[in-house]
Amino acid sequence: MTRLLQTIEPILWRDEQLHLLDQRVLPHTENWLAFYDSDAVAEAIKLMVVRGAPAIGVTAAYGVVLAAREAWFSAGENWQEALIPALKRLAASRPTAVNLFWAIERMQQTCNTLSKYESPEPALLEQAKRIHQEDVKANRTMGQYGADLLDNDSIVLTHCNAGALATAGFGTALGVIRQGFIDGKIEHVYVDETRPWLQGSRLTAWELMQEGIPMTLQADVAAGALMAGGRLDWVIVGADRIASNGDTANKIGTYSLAVLAKYHGVKVMVVAPTTTIDWSIENGSQIPIEQRAHSEVSEIEGHAIAPAKVHVSNPAFDVTPAALIDAIVTEEGVVSSPSKEKMQQLKKEEKNDTNSISDRM
Ligand SMILES: CSC[C@H]1O[C@H](OP(=O)(O)O)[C@H](O)[C@@H]1O
């Protein structure tokens, strides 16, 4: 049973470099890539070498460490000004996961406390490692909070990958499923393949099978029939950005699942650290939705499956209204039937800037 507590960690800082497990080639190849250049880290986030809102935030924090090293070597006491362009390039890597912007802003706040006459790297590395450790701690806390909501013999469905691979370890939605399994509450997990990037079939299936958690992989379009024909207790998913009223952006297809769940009396649980909440936006309509490459839909592993020059739409996320969510689980506690008023219980401190955090980058 201890195996379940030693989960995958896709992000490592070692030998003064950032090491990322390349999630583009999982599950058949486990390949680690080393990064000592912040622009290469920004590209790795954009290309989804690393993905998942919390993992993107932790990775960006280490990207700031590398950018500060570069700025100190190139500009000396002017490192803080020299750092800004690299921070903007990190912030431009992907638009939806607010953890990216939260992490960069927190690292910037650390920069503001540092002397211009000394290398910023040691202090910034300490802050990045703190962000890294805080994420794993939060995931284990949320895992227990979410597992406590499950009845015995629960049958659950998850979409995309909100596992150890989407975080610094243990996972958010999969953290609840892991802890639920440890607590003997999980009878079975259905895993959506999650087209077009296939995070479910390639990443979530890999994580759950490694730990012997009983699961079945299915096509995304099978979810409705599953709910209609069998017993399903919970849809459990992660999040990329949660508005202050509880509206939640998550992988495309989550909204469809929530509508089906409401129709079939299945409960919906969103699991995300409070760093995923964007207090600067009122509702989900203000969340920027990433549009990704058309080839992700029209090709599979580089092989065209659609006619040449076909017109494609490829939004990477959709927004689930708070009214369709039964519980938002965070490390600060659980909000049942979320609303603007109920979400306030999670607010740690007043946010000074009224502009959306991602607009400030
Ligand atoms: C724990 S957050 C995981 C979240 O991120 C995924 O998106 P992507 O794989 O494109 O980064 C998906 O929305 C997951 O729910």
Summary, kept brief:
With 361 residues, the protein is of the alpha/beta class.
What does it look like?
The structure is a single chain. The chain is of the alpha/beta class. It has two domains: 2-137, Four Helix Bundle (Hemerythrin (Met), subunit A) (Up-down Bundle), CATH 1.20.120; 141-354, Translation initiation factor eif-2b, domain 2 (Rossmann fold), CATH 3.40.50.10470. 37% of the residues lie in helices and 17% in strands. The chain contains eleven helices and 16 strands. It has helices spanning 38-46, 53-75, 79-91, 98-111, 121-147, 173-182, 199-210, 223-229, 254-264, 295-298, 340-343; strands at 11-14, 17-21, 32-35, 154-158, 186-192, 215-218, 234-237, 241-243, 248-251, 267-271, 277-278, 299-300, 303-304, 317-320, 327-330, 333-336. A seven-stranded mixed sheet has the order 6-5-4-7-10-15-16, sandwiched between helices. A four-stranded mixed sheet has the order 11-8-9-14, with helices on one face. Strands 1-2-3 form a three-stranded antiparallel sheet, with helices on one face. The relative contact order is 0.12. Bound molecules: the ligand CSC[C@H]1O[C@H](OP(=O)(O)O)[C@H](O)[C@@H]1O. The ligand CSC[C@H]1O[C@H](OP(=O)(O)O)[C@H](O)[C@@H]1O binds next to α2 and β9.
